[in-house]
Amino acid sequence: MRRPTIADIARRAGVSKGAVSYALNGRPGVSEATRARILAIAQEIGWQPNSAARALNGARAEAVGLALCRPARFLGMEPFFMELISGIESELAAHSCALMLQVVRDHETEMGVYRRWWGEGRVDGAILVDLHVADPRVPEMEALGMPVVVIGHPSAAGSLLPVWSDDGAAVRETVEYLAALGHRRVSRVAGLPRLVHTAIRDRAFEEACAALGLAETGVVHTDYTGEEGARATRRLLSSPHRPTAIVYDNDIMAVAGLSVAQEMRLDVPADLSIVAWDDSPLSQVVRPPLTALGRDISAYGAHAARRLLALIDGADPGPLEDDTARLTPRGSTAPPPES
Amino acid sequence: MRRPTIADIARRAGVSKGAVSYALNGRPGVSEATRARILAIAQEIGWQPNSAARALNGARAEAVGLALCRPARFLGMEPFFMELISGIESELAAHSCALMLQVVRDHETEMGVYRRWWGEGRVDGAILVDLHVADPRVPEMEALGMPVVVIGHPSAAGSLLPVWSDDGAAVRETVEYLAALGHRRVSRVAGLPRLVHTAIRDRAFEEACAALGLAETGVVHTDYTGEEGARATRRLLSSPHRPTAIVYDNDIMAVAGLSVAQEMRLDVPADLSIVAWDDSPLSQVVRPPLTALGRDISAYGAHAARRLLALIDGADPGPLEDDTARLTPRGSTAPPPES
DNA sequence: TCGCGGTACTTATCCGGTTCAGCAGGTATT
DNA sequence: AATACCTGCTGAACCGGATAAGTACCGCGA
Predict the structure, then answer these.
(1) In chain A, which residues have their Cβ closer than 8 Å to the Cβ of B73?
(2) Interface test with B, best of A3, A45, A282, A332 (most B CBs within 10 A)
């Protein structure tokens, strides 16, 4: 049995397709009596608008795109992305807007997907994440003319609308906190070096250490996995002047680092202080619970989605600086051991 | 500047729209010379097919739907879902098929979303998860006539295509392993009682305990969160005949349970053995690393997606029983304390 | 030299909506 | 009484493709 169309409704109501269209869209042009009759018939035969036909007339796709250029397995491992996505979802859901999600291999494929989605009218806008230094996607997106919100620092977002949070300030707060505890040798286990926010954190870390006269005992870059976090930790803790504190770029690596420290018979926090970036339940559940830089990632995603929806609506929302991550001291940080 | 259409191409090439359509779709009806000319022009003016127009003629949406009825925050916390989604993605990506994702409040909204997506021709099929006992979604989906793969036991999938794994066997293996270690008092911290797979695990657990003559020291149902996992553990460990082993329905709760045990000055595994269901990196990263029931969830998702794509293609793939979860013994299980 | 068949198109229609011009018929205005 | 102006509707074009049916032309065999 075919899906009912407005032509079916028109036939049963004894009016024209046009009248049905006016009635169903709450537009003037039909009497209230006729409108009610048409709505009743539509209800009765279970009519559903066909978005394809609507889109053909320039209507919205009522969906926004997110193409993620990370190995698929990262998704399952990084709480950050799932929280971000769930935050985006929560905002979109309130506007009956769907999320088109695709995991892609590389940036080239990613742009191909965006080009196709936009070209085919399947999405009304997109969210760009994981900004690289001198990211080629930015000028390409600008050329496409699609509404785009960039999750990342304005300095790298070109003319696209940025939503970001001040990682530099968070790094400074952390380093100052560790310095106040008495630490003088602080290391950092960072994420992918090509990502803009890694560069920003690296730089802020370096500057904060210099300002406070701390010895920078090494920044190690990783791919965010627990394995590389463990390896980096092992390397840092094996060096002759090993750090008394390590700041990790995500909680997965911090937890892995904690395990390595314990494996090396170092007491956390007595011998080594650990700070995690991203405060998922994971950080609170290990022993000792981790001092972490937390913020509401879900809200972050929601804000980005709201900005995008405004942009799609033709508004001109300004860039948004979201909350800076806040340090929550827990059991993994303490003054360094006397030496 | 308007997006180019086949009419623009036709005008520039000096042929009709029909000829352009044939050329662009690689169908016979135009000479190779004309085809090449048309393709060149299409390339030059940056033509992209408009999916709406295609869909109007009954073409595929090239997307499948997944409406998740869980609080948004769960997504970020449960590694299972993200791995499942990334697995689904990996299979879909290979077929240039997108995933329409929406987090919904309740099953009613969920069905509304599916009805709309299907009615509006935005998806070609859907994946149903978190099957409930006597789930109303199954008959509704059957009535809709949309291609659907159910991730869950065939007994609850009606005429929809099930993809499942034998949780009962995994429970039996686990209980037998614990019994072989010498445990006689085994508990279970389970998930939501209304979920079909919880019921199946509950029953298998009960039967296995009975068969091996173990004392069942309680099954506690939770909502899968770390908090409830911790609370359930505290309750079980506070009872007079406390269990010497606990099997958890996910790793989040197992890790939370581990913390509670340590907080109560119980040594894991000397005083208490812990088994986690779902073997995410989390299980391996805590001290001691958790004995876990693991399987390739990503592959599970990929298999479901492949089944769905086959279904959409009009094939009639049979139900798929995926690998049973396998027990990986690690440091959290040992013989029970003497006494 | 006729007809047959194939090639290479064109034309027209359809998909399911939106939208605009037009047109009755009634009411208010002058 | 003629005019203007609503209201409530109709009919048709239109969006951008796919596709069935029709046609012009060519080569070829009989």
Answers:
(1) 83, 86, 298
(2) A282
Is the preceding omega at residue B49 within 30 degrees of 0, hence cis? Answer: no
Q: How far apart are CA B81 and CA B99, in angstroms?
A: 14
Distance, CA of B132 to CA of B321 (rounded, Å): 19
Of chain A, the end-to-end C-alpha distance in Å amounts to 82
> Taking the model in full, what pTM does it have?
0.81
* Among chain B residues 269-298, those with CB within 7 Å of any atom of strand C: none
B241 touches strand D (CB under 7 A): no
The answer to whether A293 and A80 are in contact (CB under 8 A) is no
pLDDT in tens, A277-321: 988 877 877 788 899 999 999 899 999 999 999 998 888 899 999
Q: Give the residue carrying structure tokens 């027990």.
A: B327
State the Cα–Cα distance between residues B51 and B146, nearest whole angstrom. Answer: 20
A47-70 per-residue burial string, b: 16 or more CB within 10 A, e: under 16? bbbbbbbebeeeeebbbbbbbbbb
Q: Is the CB of B7 less than 7 A from some atom of nucleic acid strand D?
A: yes
Residue A220, number of CB atoms within 10 A of its CB: 18
Query: What is the separation of C-alpha A153 from the centre of its chain, rounded to a whole number of angstroms?
Result: 13
Q: Give the pLDDT confidence of A34-85 residue by residue, as tens digits.
A: 999 999 999 888 888 876 787 777 777 788 999 988 766 666 667 788 889 8
